[in-house]
Design a protein that fits this description.
mainly beta, four-stranded antiparallel beta sheet
């Protein structure tokens, strides 16, 4: 049974930083592209970023480019998202995803507000 468990979400002030984590079990993590998506209030879920299985390639949505960084630790079956220079429009539920298989975590809420 494949499971993805996100953590790290909370209430943050604009300009702050945080790191989200997603621990994956039930598959050979190192073989898969991993991604982060988000769903803002009243909006559709949207792509944020992804990372190749070997960490050599990353891709970001324009809205987060230069502020967010995706990384992974294949020994710990974990994908991370470092979020810097947070903006109120980053407020959303953040989900990690096994890109080619379509598995999703339950999401973690990030709220950016002063």
């Amino acid at each position: 049974q494949v499971q993805l468990v996100e953590s790290g979400g909370c209430l943050f002030q604009p300009g702050g930083s945080l790191r989200l984590s997603c621990v994956v079990s039930g598959l050979t993590f190192r073989n898969y592209v991993m991604g982060w998506f988000r769903r803002a209030p009243g909006k559709e879920r949207e792509f944020v970023e992804r990372i190749s299985y070997n960490r050599l390639a990353t891709y970001y949505a324009d809205s987060v480019k230069g502020r967010f960084t995706i990384s992974r630790d294949n020994a710990k079956n974990t994908v991370f998202m470092q979020m810097n220079s947070l903006k109120p429009e980053d407020t959303a539920v953040y989900y990690c995803n096994v890109v080619t298989l379509g598995y999703w975590g339950q999401g973690t809420q990030v709220t950016v507000s002063s």
